[in-house]
Amino acid sequence: MPALEQEDRYWGIRALEFVDAVDTARSAEGVTRLFKDSIAQAGFDAYVMCGLPDSQTEFRNRIIANGWPEEWASIYVREDLAKHDPVERHCLRTVEPFNWSAAPYDPEREPKAKDVMRRATDFRMAEGYCVPIHYGDGSGAAVSIAGERPEMARGVRAAMHLMALYAHHTVRGLLKPPAPKPDRLLTEREREVLRWAAAGKTDWEISMILHISRRTVHAHMQNAAHKLNAVNRVSTIVRALRAGEITL
């Protein structure tokens, strides 16, 4: 098995182990502790979960869970650096996870944006990875993780994506009062497809297992994503897990 495929498989297993561990956590603090320990395995030393920026809410009031270095968090809030942060701004423009270095800004015309990124490196946050999360009502959140020299391989980023989504949705759920459990949204076949997808199977592999066409598998995935208000495959799996539609 090629080294890259082995690494992807390793991080896929780590991500599913994280999901399994989070399901036993009884508090938001327990979830964030598991998240911090898990991302540290890839060299990410800091994280923040917060609501997406808007014109009315200060950054301090958008924080859901704060795992930044204490001094950096204090500076960021006190100097209102969020309004100059290119990573924050880019979260509003994309639904896809991105490396901090991919958040666009003009260092000549936006010296304060450049300064935010430079000052973050003083706190061992030289490289980062951000997962935007957009809700169906137009609001949303983001999970941003960073380190001095974190691993950024494909398998690592995929695992961080799944962990960030699952940690955020779990913390958000734990911080909200319990709501009546809704009736199931998905059909049995849609749940079956998602269970195999959560196990890492491709559409083609699922089609072979279930003896249906690849096109039918894709249609079930799209239907499930629509019903769960998810934006991509990983988000669909995470929302199905959180909603109790499927289990690992």
Give a written overview of the molecule.
With 248 residues, the chain is of the alpha+beta class. It has two domains: 3-175, Beta-Lactamase, CATH 3.30.450.80; 188-242, Arc Repressor Mutant, subunit A (Orthogonal Bundle), CATH 1.10.10. The chain is built from ten helices and five strands. The protein has helices at 3-22, 28-40, 70-78, 86-91, 111-120, 154-175, 188-198, 203-210, 214-228, 233-242; strands at 46-51, 63-66, 98-99, 127-134, 140-147. The protein has a five-stranded antiparallel sheet with strand order 2-1-5-4-3. A hairpin with a 5-residue loop joins strand 4 (127-134) and strand 5. Helix 1 (3-22) packs antiparallel against helix 2 (28-40), helix 1 runs parallel beside helix 6 (154-175) and helix 9 (214-228) packs across helix 10 (233-242). It is globular and about 55 Å long. The mean pLDDT is 91.
The second-level CATH architecture of the largest domain is 2-Layer Sandwich
CATH class of the largest domain: Alpha Beta
Strand content: 5-15%
Which residues sit in consecutive blocks of at least 5 with pLDDT less than 50? Answer: none
Shape category = globular
Helix content: 40-55%
Question: What is the CATH T-level topology of the largest domain?
Answer: Beta-Lactamase
The tally of structural domains comes to: 2
Along the chain, the helix and strand elements come as HHEEHHEHEEHHHHH
Average pLDDT confidence is 91
The CATH homologous superfamily name of the largest domain equals Transcription factor LuxR-like, autoinducer-binding domain
Radius of gyration: 19 Å
Number of helices: 10
Main beta-sheet strand count, sense and barrel state:
5 strands, antiparallel
